[in-house]
Design brief:
Length: 152
């Protein structure tokens, strides 16, 4: 009988230990409650950034046509939007920017000017160099991309 009593005590002790151990595990906070929720803000390009991307795409097409020996006949973009498009946050139209924009508009219009004495390739590269000139002072990020537009 003493043996049975000792096994019963041992069983009780084991059962008590298991209950205590399980209670301690239940006190832990669930993982989902302790994880931080990270919210990402999607980049929304400004009206000016979208217009600049459209001008890049247009000039990329122009380059292809000029290299193929074709002469462009129309300017499908309204370049005057450069004066009114909403700028990227933190940017503004400085005097420097304004002077570059006016020269750029003129140089883009000379590309389709069939009466010009300059070779088409030279007119196109002059326009792209105007882009580079402005971007060297105002927004340097796209310079490597713009340089790819130059006709060698």
């Amino acid at each position: 009988m003493a043996f049975y009593y000792n096994n019963k005590s041992l069983g009780f002790i084991l059962l008590t230990c298991l209950l205590i151990y399980n209670c301690k595990n239940e006190e832990k906070a669930p993982e989902s409650a302790t994880k931080k929720v990270i919210e990402y803000e999607m980049y929304q390009p400004s009206e000016m950034a979208n217009f600049m991307n459209a001008m890049y795409a247009y000039n990329e097409q122009l380059k292809t046509k000029i290299v193929a020996g074709e002469t462009p006949s129309a300017m499908p973009l309204d370049l005057l939007k450069l004066h009114s498009a909403e700028m990227t946050s933190g940017k503004s139209r400085t005097e420097n920017w304004q002077s570059f924009v006016n020269v750029f508009i003129e140089s883009q219009n000379t590309i389709i000017d069939t009466l010009s004495n300059l070779e088409l390739k030279e007119r196109f590269n002059a326009s792209i160099n105007n882009c580079l000139g402005c971007h060297k002072t105002e927004c340097t990020g796209p310079i490597p991309k713009i340089k790819k537009l130059l006709i060698q």
